[in-house]
Amino acid sequence: MQTAKTGRASCDGCFFRANLLCALNIEEACATFRPAEAELRPPRQMRFVFRQERRARAGWAFPTADEQAALHA
């Protein structure tokens, strides 16, 4: 692994080593190497927004008793 600024990556320039989060005792960079200058944050999540209710009542409804009686009369 190489970084653009320093040439070769080492544990001394790793985010985890700089913040005392590294449990490995090696001198070369491991697979989890992250530059110490980088801010490691999870990506922002989308906000959940409730939609306004567009209709006062459902798009379908059962016919009323009078409407049913008129259909069968």
CA-CA gap between termini: 84 Å
The number of distinct helices, counting runs of at least 4 residues, comes to 2
The coarse overall form would be: rod-shaped
| Major sheet size, sense and barrel closure | 2 strands, antiparallel
Structural class comes to mainly alpha
Q: List the secondary-structure elements in sequence, H or E.
A: EEHH
Give the overall average pLDDT: 78
Number of strands: 2
Radius of gyration: 32 Å
- Helix content, binned percent: 10-25%
* Strand arrangement, major sheet: 1-2
Q: Note poorly predicted spans.
A: none
Q: What portion of residues belong to β-strands?
A: 5-15%
What quaternary form is this? single chain
Short descriptors:
2 helices; 16% helix; two-stranded antiparallel sheet; 2 strands; 5% strand; mainly alpha; 73 residues
Task: Provide structural commentary.
By secondary structure, the chain is mainly alpha-helical. The chain has a domain at 1-38. It has two helices and two strands, in the order E-E-H-H. Strands 1-2 form a two-stranded antiparallel sheet. The protein is rod-shaped, with a radius of gyration of 32 Å. The mean pLDDT is 78.
Quick take:
The chain is mostly helical and about 70 residues long.
SSE layout and pairings?
Blueprint: E1 2-3, E2 7-8, H1 15-18, H2 65-72
Antiparallel strand pairs: 1-2
